[in-house]
Amino acid sequence: MSRYRGPCFKKIRRLGALPGLTNRSPDDLSQKKKSDKKKKKQYLIRLQEKQKLRFHYGLTERQLLKYVRIAAKAKGPTGRVLLQLLEMRLDNILFRLGMARTIPGARQLVNHRHILVNGRIVDIPSYRCKPRDTITAKDKQKSKALIQNSLDSLPQKKKKLNVPPHLTLKRSQSKGLVKKIIDSELVGLKINELQVVEYYSRQT
């Protein structure tokens, strides 16, 4: 299944806020989601949690399944490790630093070779960042301008960006630092990761 490139609002109406996919919220939509008083089937709940994760991080079905399998083989709870793997992707790190307004925007920066990791160009959005990695714009005016525009385009009330504690941003230098692996409690998405693990339990 290919990466989703359709209407963003269609997904957030059904799944709720997906900040990595779009910076609009369900409250911005003209059609409000109707409350469903019927108890959802367990499979539907698991499916929706899986879809939240997939569309937020901009993954294909095959990519997400691959991450679940890697997490299942690692030490620690599978759900927590899965979230840590996804949060440490380069495109997501750029988004959490504010260097890109959405994860698709961050992916485009990486694909177009605007980003350096430890002084080297990295053009793979899924690159897994590690503690002490330094992320900067390429030493060209255009690259720095793209990132600075993203930082400056935040609404006035959000000018003081809420960078998670596992990252450090030096705004004037368009530079970010990964201090440590993120705690799963600080993931920028309301998600029940156990439901995702259970959804894939027969495929892992």
UniProtKB/TrEMBL annotation:
Name of protein: Small ribosomal subunit protein uS4c
Function as written in the Swiss-Prot or TrEMBL entry: With S5 and S12 plays an important role in translational accuracy.
Record text on subunit structure and interactions: Part of the 30S ribosomal subunit. Contacts protein S5. The interaction surface between S4 and S5 is involved in control of translational fidelity.
GO cellular component: chloroplast; small ribosomal subunit
Domain Small ribosomal subunit protein uS4 N-terminal: 3-87
Region (Disordered): 18-41
Pfam families: Ribosomal_S4, S4
Taxonomic superkingdom: Eukaryota
Entry keywords, A to Z: Chloroplast, Plastid, Ribonucleoprotein, Ribosomal protein, RNA-binding, rRNA-binding
InterPro entries noted in UniProt: Ribosomal_uS4, Ribosomal_uS4_bac-type, Ribosomal_uS4_CS, Ribosomal_uS4_N, S4_RNA-bd, S4_RNA-bd_sf
Molecular function terms, GO-annotated: rRNA binding; structural constituent of ribosome
HAMAP family linked: Ribosomal_uS4_B (MF_01306_B)
Domain RNA-binding S4: start-end pairs: 88-152
PROSITE patterns named in the record: RIBOSOMAL_S4, S4
Subcellular location: Plastid, Chloroplast
GO biological-process terms attached to the record: ribosomal small subunit biogenesis; translation
Similarity annotation: Belongs to the universal ribosomal protein uS4 family.
Chain's gene name: rps4
